[in-house]
Amino acid sequence: MIRLKTGLEGRKTQFGVIQNRLEECGYHLGGNWDYHTGFFDRVLNREEGETIYIRAPFDVIAGMLDQDNASIQFKTPYIIKHVVNIGFDSEENSLLTSTFNQFQEPLDKDGRIPDKSKWQEIGVREVNRLLAILE
Question: What InterPro entries has UniProt attached to this entry (predicted)?
Answer without folding.
Answer: Uncharacterised_YugN-like (IPR014967), YugN-like_sf (IPR036491)
